[in-house]
Amino acid sequence: MTxxxxxxxxxxxxxxxxxxxxxxxxxxxxxxxxxxxxxxxxIDAAFADRHYAEHVDxxxxxxxxxxxxxxxxxxxxxxxxxxxEAVRVLNGATDGVKASPGSIRGDFASSNQRNIVHASDxxxxxxxxxxxxxxxxxxx
Length: 140
Ligand code: CDP
Ligand code: MG
Hints:
The chain is an alpha+beta fold. The protein has helices at about 15, 20-30, 45-50, 60-70, 85-90, 105-110, 125-135; strands at about 5-10, 35-40, 75-80, 115-120. Bound molecules: cytidine-5'-diphosphate and magnesium ion (MG).
């Protein structure tokens, strides 16, 4: 049985400024995931607070907010077989130092904050995040 899902990915400002957008997108495309939406944009602090609502009370959140608003990022909706888990596995562990070699973070990051990518972690968060970033909707 197939289980095709959509998930939201952010290619974070560190990746954009380092010229890694193409390299990161290539990982998802070669895995077989399809790009449904893609937008380069810069967000403000209020939008960051909405995206990271679950983390706003963390002691490290102000640093994350400064980072995620520091420059343009690329928001992407990907679709494919069990896309939410597939993308989380491709991304690797949150801390780039601990992330496995071969994963995006393992290959491109050495920070627990400036870690190249974000991805939705559940069906519910994917629906919420896709609705936040692409309120005009995503075609099937
Ligand atoms: O992104 P992921 O779901 O793997 O990790 P998270 O625990 O949901 O944290 C969200 C983001 O906050 C991470 O991707 C990091 O960019 C940042 N973070 C941080 O700045 N400092 C931490 N101690 C933990 C996470
Ligand atoms: Mg998370």
